[in-house]
Amino acid sequence: MAAALVLAFCASLAFGAVHIPVSDVIGTIFGDKVPETSQQIIEVLRLPRTIEAILVGAALGVAGACLQGALNNPLASPDVIGVTSGAGFGAMLIILLNPASVELLPLSALAFGLIAAGMVFLIGFTGRGGGNITRVILAGIAIAALFSAATAALMSAYPDRVPNAVFFLVGGLTSTGWENLETVWPYFAFGFVLAVFMIRPLDKLMLGDDVAASLGSRPRLIRLLAAIAAAVLASAAAAIAGLLAFLGLVIPHLVRLLGGTNNHTFVIPVSALAGAALLTAADTLARTIAAPVEMPVGPFLVLLGVPLFLWLLRKAV
Amino acid sequence: MAIGRKTIRIDERAPLLQASGVQVTIGKKRILESADLTLERGELVAIVGPNGAGKSTFARGFCGLRRPDGGSVRWMGVDLSELRGRRLADMRAYVPQRAQVPAGVTVQAAVNIGRSTHLKPLQGLSSEDRDVIAESIARARMEGFEDRDLGTLSGGEMQRVQIAIALAQGSPVLVADEPTAQLDLGATAAISKMLRELVSEGMGVVLIVHDLALAAAIADRVVVMSHGRTIATGTPEAVLSSQLISEVWGVEAELVHKDGRSALHVEWLDHH
Question: Quick one: what percent of chain B has pLDDT higher than 70?
């Protein structure tokens, strides 16, 4: 998986509207002398975009793995805790209502993703019987419906601006340099660090709440912290790349099927690698296949991911 | 790194567990009125009683899975309220009644998780930890099953894995809620022998059990519960009289116990 990521990384830097020889790519990375245009394209356009793809892919893979572990439910993805709908609404607020300040889009998507998740956690985790999995999931579905309805209302109020929103809604990366990452990186950092510390607690939880409690853990707290890590990672991912929640659902399953184990010690780190590799590869394809026109990566991801996933599914069961 | 942590004082001479007047309220209903239990080293205590008497609630209460609302629980002289996380895990291991069976996890991986309280975050297993894990698997008679997926195990094997996980925790007390409830005769006997072995090595074991004949055969003492209270404690012979069985279970029965064999002679239908 690490090798696949390195390969995708190099391909992502080499291919695009302008093809750059792999030797120049390697040269740029290691600071050797290469043609200036190549160096410029790589450093200003492709490197930030590739780093974004890696971070977003890894974040969604980890978010999915954390949530599926926390909710003990194979269907869990960032949709389930409202992040996707919240972030979508936050983006539409800018794109449809306030297109002049488009630079606020990542921040707004991030903020509303977190707000939606916060509402879900407030309802799902507080009070008597808080932390009950069914309650969290139902709260998530309700909050997601709320934000989706608000998004739909906005879209019907400004139908002429909807085309601008499509790129965000289907999910995709853009070559906009380091700006977005500069805003969002602390959220990625926080989410990844928290996720790393949740690996072992999630393994305990996998053996059941009572075994986790026997081992001195608090199952409810593990659920909440793992879900927070997932919410932060998925919101940060949405801020940069729009709605790609499919990746969060499928990557952990892919990793479990390939690895034949459900241990989080394996699933969480490998989901990060697999998510990063798949999104980087899909993004490279999306901008080369009809170059110089760029396709949004979301549909490509589905085209690439679904057959692989279905093939593994049939092989495993 | 002891910031914010009180030091606790373990009293080596105190009983492993001393619970008295334990109360548990769930919602507005008091499930447990007043329950007492003392456990010494090298002792197996069985909690018996009819369905709904509060046996599981009591065990979960003194194990700290659901904190009691009243009474006192002391583990080796330390109050339960001072025990959290690793410290609580070091005092007792709890084997739940219905184990979750996650597929895609091997026996080895599951028992490794049982040892994880001994590790700092991100720290790997030491060779000493690996020895304890191997020994736990051996004591639970699961050698040779290390690479088997939990999803492929029988009920008895799964129960033994649960005990191995608990043993890897390395605490002096094992509390098991009906470990033999779903098991056939052979598997029940195997688990019983294993638990007695642990007791002979000095561990304390608390067993919640339905089968009075089994309790009489393997327990040093029994605690009888009825309607949220412990109503009798003592050796099986002294406590499980026909009169008490009649009062608590409403059934005419006699416990026959000799030469290491035990049976409950029950009057299943009315004979007048």
Answer: 97
Domain CATH number, residue A36:
1.10.3470.10
Q: Which domains does chain B have, with CATH numbers?
A: 17-97+173-266 (3.40.50.300)
The number of folded domains in chain A is 1
Neighbouring C-alpha atoms within 13 Å toward the C-beta of B36: 6
pLDDT on residue A16? 66
Do residue B99 and residue A196 have CB atoms under 8 angstroms apart?
no
Q: What are phi and psi of A129, to 5 degrees?
A: 75, 15
Q: What is the pTM of this model?
A: 0.87
Chain A 92-131, residues with CB within 8 Å of chain B CB atoms: 128
CB nearest B166 (choices: A214, A256, A261): A214
User: Shortest CB distance from A207 goes to which of B27, B113, B119?
Assistant: B113
The DSSP secondary-structure symbol of B267 reads -
- Asked if the C-beta of A73 comes within 8 angstroms of chain B's C-beta atoms, the answer is no
- Nearest Cα neighbor of A234 from A54, A121, A83, A104 is A83
B87, A256: Cβ pair inside 8 Å?
no
pLDDT value of residue B5: 55
Instruction: Report whether A289 contacts A312 (CB < 8 A).
Output: no
Query: Measured between CB atoms, which of B88, B96, B104 is closest to A208?
Result: B96
Asked if B38 and B223 count as a contact pair (C-beta separation under 8 A), the reply is no
pLDDT in tens, A94-107: 988 888 887 888 89
pLDDT digits (tens, 9 = 90+) for A185-227: 899 999 999 999 999 999 999 998 999 999 989 998 999 999 9
Domain of residue A92: give its range: 2-316
Backbone phi, psi, residue A244, to 5°: -125, 35
Q: What distance in Å separates residue B164's CA from the closest CA in chain A?
A: 12
For residue B3, pLDDT over 50 is answered with no
What whole-number distance in Å separates Cα of residue A28 and Cα of residue A42? 8
Q: Which residues of A touch B89 (CB under 8 A)?
A: 214-216
Interface size, chain A vs chain B, as Cβ–Cβ contacts under 8 Å? 79
A296: CB partners within 8 A, 6+ apart:
A166, A167, A170, A171, A172, A242, A286
Residues of B with Cβ-Cβ distance to A207 under 8 angstroms = 99-100, 102, 105, 110, 113, 165
